[in-house]
Write a structure and sequence with these properties.
Elements: H1 6-18, E1 24-26, E2 36-42, E3 48-54, H2 64-77, H3 82-98
Antiparallel strand pairs: 1-2, 2-3
Helix pairs in contact: 2-3
Length: 120
């Protein structure tokens, strides 16, 4: 489905849960008309969570979905709670975008060597 606003984000998450997914994270970085990047989480129990961060003016955002997923999985493997893993993932993405690297031309990669402090 096409996602145009926050109501669509929530509906998309609900639909994904109906397919059997327990917890859903929908990234919100592509809503460029908002001053913040807002990711939406719908948990298995119906609880909702937003992960917010500043929006950075850069073309170096290639791989944000893969990267945040990897950070979340790594944190879960280390024993973190899902909520803590999500917060760490968002903090890492914010650091990887804000401390960007210039490689090649066009839509470039994140800085995977960046270090982000987990937001409380």
């Amino acid at each position: 489905m096409e996602i145009k606003n926050n109501a669509d984000v929530k509906e998309a998450a609900r639909r994904l849960q109906q397919l059997g997914v327990k917890n859903v994270l929908i990234k919100g970085g592509h809503f460029s008309d908002q001053p913040e990047s807002r990711d939406y989480v719908l948990f298995e129990n119906g609880e909702e969570m937003e992960l917010t961060g500043p929006r950075f003016e850069t073309n170096n955002t290639h791989g944000t979905g893969d990267t945040i997923s990897s950070v979340i999985v790594a944190e879960l493997a280390k024993g973190a709670s899902l909520k803590a893993a999500l917060r760490t993932g968002k903090a890492f993405i914010n650091a990887a975008i804000s401390d960007g690297i210039q490689v090649g031309h066009g839509h470039g990669p994140l800085n995977h060597w960046a270090y982000g402090e987990e937001e409380q």
